[in-house]
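Practice problem 4.
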């Protein structure tokens, strides 16, 4: 079967949908077919071997150690679906948008963006705690991020950490620089709490994951990730961010914009060639 036809390995269950809305994050085990992961891997490897790969570590803990250069890198980039056919196909044509439609209980799904997120063995940078919504120029309740690893993930190699139930707190924290806790200038709200430093008052969800598993978290869920303390194992993943029926444009002060955000009407539906409807197909 062509990867463009392989369906999800199973349906999303009612229990998983309830867990997503109750906890703000859920791990869907054994759901993504290997053929789609192999296609995504082509796109990720292409970017890692290209000149456009970008090291977040150049701005993170490695630098404040006083080291001239980071020894291992946290590579991060966005919107690969716009330039790489494999990433585009994965974000638009794979079972992922349908999985999101089920979880968001939405009749349609728009693609907002993707991010490649790779932590090499020995990456010291943690991903600092943040919510995704303050980075997005949208509002609504049906907005989420899927995180699809290409390698088995353990705490030691850089698991995501989710603050259980934080999407219900009715709080929006200022966006930060992902590898630094410092908030972006001119953004609205309070600074995001640093649960790497202090987890006393929070229940943290953390999933050991295998290839074929993926997590989905709500755009208001506070989350971060550990560094990759392994000496040999890569942690390669792609986040794909989607919106459902009730999402509308809302320009947020201080957060970086995409070119089409200059043309949109606040309050309008998202459908645009740069924020396309990807489900139903
Ligand atoms: O992969 C990571 O380290 C962080 C992922 C994340 O925070 C996100 O995609 O929203």
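Answer key:
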């Amino acid at each position: 079967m062509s990867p463009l036809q392989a369906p999800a390995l199973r349906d999303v269950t009612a229990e998983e949908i309830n867990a997503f809305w109750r906890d703000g994050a859920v791990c869907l085990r054994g759901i993504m077919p290997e053929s789609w992961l192999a296609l995504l891997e082509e796109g990720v490897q292409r970017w890692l071997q290209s000149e456009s790969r970008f090291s977040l570590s150049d701005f993170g803990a490695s630098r404040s150690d006083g080291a001239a250069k980071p020894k291992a890198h946290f590579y991060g980039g966005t919107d690969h679906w716009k330039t790489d056919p494999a990433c585009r196909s994965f974000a638009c044509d794979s079972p992922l948008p349908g999985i999101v439609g089920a979880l968001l209980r939405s009749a349609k799904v728009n693609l907002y963006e993707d991010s490649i997120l790779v932590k090499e063995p020995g990456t010291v940078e943690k991903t600092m705690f943040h919510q995704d919504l303050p980075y997005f120029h949208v509002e609504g309740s049906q907005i989420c991020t899927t995180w699809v690893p290409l390698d088995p993930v353990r705490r030691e190699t850089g698991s995501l950490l989710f603050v259980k139930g934080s999407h219900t707190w009715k709080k929006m924290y200022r966006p930060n620089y992902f590898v630094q806790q410092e908030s972006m200038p001119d953004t609205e709200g309070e600074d995001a709490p640093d649960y790497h430093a202090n987890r006393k008052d929070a229940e943290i969800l953390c999933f050991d994951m295998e290839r074929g598993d993926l997590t989905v978290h709500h755009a208001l869920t506070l989350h971060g990730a550990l560094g990759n303390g392994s000496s040999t194992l890569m942690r390669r993943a792609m986040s794909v961010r989607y919106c459902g029926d009730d999402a509308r444009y809302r320009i947020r002060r201080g957060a970086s914009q995409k070119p089409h955000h200059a043309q949109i009407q606040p309050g309008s539906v998202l459908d645009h060639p740069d924020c396309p409807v990807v489900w139903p197909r």
